[in-house]
Design goal:
Length: about 350
């Protein structure tokens, strides 16, 4: 029988012409340009017990490489075309440890000896040391020389957890790397209706990997802005000291009208919310009143959200921050409300503005 492989190889080459799928852009269109690639080198330490359980070093390295392929693919696709660069996290497995991962973590927190790496990752698939159980799960913390460290620890004392086999693990690590790049936890801004004594409404933050990595496949506009802004820094904590607080505008301008006319004397109450509790404190943190122009300029905004001055009207304020404010406007018994989550107010930083605008009409 004759070999017709050459004939068949010609068909795929001709298909684009037949289907009108010419690779060249049509007149007036601009061909997409490839993005510059930015790499971050990841120093990796893995527990010896986990390496042995999963088939030895070669088998584990294969798992690790495939996993970082997932992380990089997800990270960039989650930008939905809004990222200014292609980001690549490069795994560099340096250490196989045979001790408590908590002990190793504490050593790394004090060490500044990682000049060739940008972020640390400790993986521990089993809680085989007593001190590990109190810190199970995944989180990002800081170390010496502004080096971030991501810890991924299993949740069982008896069975190795196949972290790489968990569907959302790569999204979870992307979430923790998001902290490394400078993005805060958006889920901390959530307020549950049952914990809201002011208007009994729930507040749900923007959809984002930094809100819920279990079910979310995209970066919010806020996260995209930060990832793009800090992109070229290998250690944002070093190169952008105080960055989180700097993102707040200096002012919040509140403008109130009644039937379209500016109104003096409208009472403004600012209620603070707490992370972890996901609640609002029932007593206003600050109270203001509009002037004859129907306006009030709230100043010193960074200090209202971050390390706020007393009285706080609560004995416990996690992270020493108000994560969301609820602004209540009251006129002749009628009340209106505006949510002021930190991530929304901080967007003014990327708009080169020093004032966040709030407009209310009764």
């Amino acid at each position: 029988m004759k070999n017709n492989w050459r004939k068949w190889l010609l068909i795929p080459a001709l298909l684009p012409s037949f289907l009108g799928l010419d690779a060249k852009p049509m007149q007036g269109e601009v061909a997409p340009q490839p993005l510059d690639t930015i790499e971050y080198r990841v120093f990796i330490a893995v527990d010896k017990a986990g390496v042995e359980h999963w088939g030895g070093k070669a088998a584990y390295q294969k798992k690790l490489d495939a996993f970082f392929g997932q992380v990089n693919d997800f990270w960039n696709k989650a930008g939905e075309g809004r990222l200014k660069y292609y980001f690549r996290y490069v795994p560099d497995w340096q250490v196989t440890y045979d001790c408590s991962s908590r002990q190793l973590e504490n050593v790394y927190k004090r060490s500044a000896g990682f000049p060739d790496h940008d972020v640390l990752l400790i993986i521990d698939s089993i809680l085989d040391f007593d001190d590990e159980e109190s810190a199970k799960g995944w989180y990002c913390s800081g170390g010496a020389d502004n080096l971030n460290m991501v810890v991924c620890r299993g949740r069982s004392k008896t069975e190795h957890e196949d972290l790489f086999g968990i569907d959302y693990f790569h999204r979870g690590v992307a979430h923790e790397f998001g902290h490394y790049r400078g993005v805060t936890d958006l889920y901390a801004d959530r307020i549950r209706a049952k914990n809201n004594p002011v208007n009994n409404l729930q507040y749900e933050p923007d959809s984002c990997v930094m809100n819920n990595h279990y079910k979310t496949y995209k970066w919010s506009p806020y996260a995209v802005n930060i990832i793009n802004y800090t992109a070229k820094s290998k250690r944002p904590g070093r190169d952008f000291p105080g960055f989180f607080k700097q993102m707040f505008p200096e002012n919040i301008q509140v403008s109130v009208t009644v039937k379209g006319k500016k109104k003096k004397g409208v009472k403004l109450n600012l209620y603070g919310s707490r992370a972890k509790f996901n609640d609002l404190i029932a007593t206003p943190y600050r109270t203001y009143e509009t002037d004859k122009k129907g306006e009030y300029l709230i100043t010193g905004v960074p200090g209202l959200y971050d390390k706020p001055a007393p009285p706080l009207h609560t004995d416990e304020l996690p992270y020493n921050r108000w994560f969301t404010f609820l602004l209540e406007e009251e006129y002749k018994g009628e009340k209106k409300y505006v949510w002021l989550p930190e991530y929304e107010v901080q967007q003014t930083f990327f708009e080169n503005k020093d004032t966040y605008q709030v407009t209310i009409d009764f």
